[in-house]
Structures are given as structure tokens and as C-alpha cells.
Structure prediction request, 373 residues.
Amino acid sequence: MGKHLVLAGGGHAHMVTIAGLKKFMDAGHRLTVVGPSPYHYYSGMGPGMLGGTYRPEEIRFSIKQQVEAKGGAFLEDQVQYVIPDQKKVVLSSGAVVGYDVISFNTGSYVSKDIVGQNDGDIYPVKPIEQLMVAKHRIQELLSGKQAIIAIIGGGPASAEIAGNIWQIGQRQGANLPIIRLFASHEFMSRFSRKVRILIKNILTARGIEIHENSSVRKVETGKIILDSGVVHDADIMFLATGVKPSSIFQQSGLPVGPDGGLLVNRYLQSKAYPEIFGGGDCIFFEDNPLDKVGVYAVRENPVLYHNLMAALDGKPLKPFETGGSYLLIFNMGGGIGVLQKNWFTLHGKIAFCLKDYIDRKFMKRFQNIHEHT
Ligand SMILES: Cc1cc2nc3c(=O)[nH]c(=O)nc-3n(C[C@H](O)[C@H](O)[C@H](O)COP(=O)(O)OP(=O)(O)OC[C@H]3O[C@@H](n4cnc5c(N)ncnc54)[C@H](O)[C@@H]3O)c2cc1C
Prediction:
């Protein structure tokens, strides 16, 4: 008899499963996808959307349309918590959905711990769709004055956001923004000296200020307060302080890793409940903890696709091999990229064009060509 597969979140790790839904239907199974929006936005192109290189519809997948076209059900809702012993999930709307097998790809979020009560014009870099709202707000402010825009955080998301805000200013022409980046320690400290210097040079040559060893204690509308007590003004702020896995698992009492992500074995399967799977930023892969990069979510696709079907049909599971080192290309705005793979680095227009090519190819593979915008 057919079983019920639930996908919580239509993120990067569920792309192949959603594309192959028909196989599940043909085998007699039912499928439901739960997600807060009919669309899923591709994070790799998010900074480019902020800078105006891409339109929102170029960087999103129409999950609802794809799922429904293939005979599945899409619930525009969010999973709040799981009752694993009853094989049920409770959604934000209060609806309760039962499952035989469930897979989580609910991603990660930026903590707002440092945000005070007045939180207007403060934008976390996730969810990616928020960057669209932020872009319009920046354009609105720049049309009237020279706005100060601050980015809190010293990692690659922060660098890409700064570079693409600069691009907004360049495209708009008048009232170029003052861009200030605050890193608690050394800027881009996880990366090689060469990459650090390259990115710093690109940003500072554009007049972007990089404040290192400037740990932020609190932000609220218009104001940044550092641990040192120094206060900076800012019209708009971006929070790029790192991501935490979706909090569903801790709230549900499921076994989690040290970061709160769903603890999974080499089959991307919960350590405690064999019918629970997961991929992407929301899991903690016990064998070999993974960086929170989309690359791993994408690599997990075929294994999740296989293992979800296998779990429904009682067949053997496949282990996830993490693969070798991965290629990273940062979009620095202005048509410039910085590429890093192991010891190799490349920067300039070629690096950006390569990123653009890879990202567009990925989109084309999974985007619904009949999407209405
Ligand atoms: C600005 C920025 C740029 C980045 N650039 C790159 C890059 O170039 N390359 C790279 O490899 N990585 C990049 N990353 C990292 C990358 O964003 C993540 O690793 C990647 O998004 C993880 O994919 P995911 O599908 O697990 O999560 P997400 O992309 O966060 O997707 C999760 C999905 O689940 C949905 N969801 C969330 N909560 C719920 C819920 N409760 N119930 C149901 N659905 C839910 C969301 O709406 C979303 O569709 C970047 C990150 C940022 C912030």
C-alpha cells in the first residue's frame, strides 16, 4: 500500500526529489511539501539580486507549482515541531500532518539576539527574499540623501552584501552610500591570507570601510553599539553574523548536534528515528560535520532522493559521501568575482562570469520554465 512522504522545506537539498516526484507517485505513494512560500530562493545568487544583477524571478524555484503539477500537495505553512513517536508534524497554522517518512530541508537563520526593540531597517541576510525588500529600501533612501549602510559580520556573506550595495549606489548614480562593515575579529578570518587581502582590497578601493575587532553588542534602528561602548549611526543595517540550523529539532526533543542541527548518520537519517531524514544547513552530519554552504545541500540531493524512496519501500539506503573540497566564488559586485579552490585563487571578471555561468546552469536545471512571475 502507498505511504505518505512529507518534505519539510523545499530547499536546495530537496531539488532532485521534487523534480522526481512522479517516481514516488508512480510507486503509489502520496507526497506533501510544506514551505512558507510558493518559491525557494537560490542563496548563491541572492547578493546578485540585491545588487540588481538578477531579477527575483531569475533566482527562485516555483516549488508549489512544480509539486502540484506532478500530483503532490503543497501546504503554504511552516513546520513548528515534530511529534516523532506519533509520526506527526505540527504546522504554524495549527494543522497536524501525519507521515510515514519525512525529510527536513528547513535551512538556517541569522540570530537576532543583538537586535533591540526598535528593529526597523535591520535586515538579516536570510531569508534571501528579504534582500529584495532591503534593495528597494536602499534605493528609496539614496534617492533622497547619502545613506549610511552598515553590515554586521565579517564573513563571506558580509563581503558579498557590501560589494553589491556598492553596486546599487553605482547604478543609482547620485548620493553614493557610505558603507561600513563591522567584523568582531579579523575580516574573512576563515579564508587564506591571499583571499582575505584580495577581498579587502576590492572593498576598500571602493571606499567601503572595514572595521575589524569591532564586536557589536547591540543594534537598533539607526544605531550600532560596539562592545567597546563606541556608537555608530546607520540608516540601514544588515545582519550577517553567521547562521544557526532551524530550531525545529531542539523544540521537538530530537537528537541534535552541538549546533542544534538534526543529528544524522551517514544515510542522512536521524540517529533516533529511522523514518526522519534531512539535508542542507539544518542537519548535523555526525561522521564529518559540514560547512554551512549550499554546495553540500546540492551534493546531498541524489542520496536523499534514493534514501527517501528506499525508506518508503523498505529497501537498502545509500551513504552520503561528502566529496572533495569545494569551489567558492564570491560575487563582489561590479561584475567582479573572487574564486577559491584549495590553494588556487582567481579574481576579476572571469571569476564572476564563471560563477554566473554555474549559477544560471543550476537554475535552468531545476527552475520551472512555465513559471509565471
Ligand atoms: C548571502 C548569502 C550568500 C551565500 N552564497 C553562497 C554561495 O555562493 N555558495 C554556497 O555554497 N553557499 C552560499 N551560501 C550559504 C547557503 O545559503 C546555504 O548553505 C544554503 O542556503 C543551504 O541550503 P538549504 O536548502 O539547507 O537552506 P535554505 O536555502 O535556507 O532553504 C530552506 C528552505 O526551507 C524553508 N523553510 C524554512 N523554515 C521552514 C519551516 N519551519 N517549515 C517549512 N519550510 C521551511 C525556507 O523557506 C527555504 O525555502 C550563502 C549564504 C548567504 C546568507
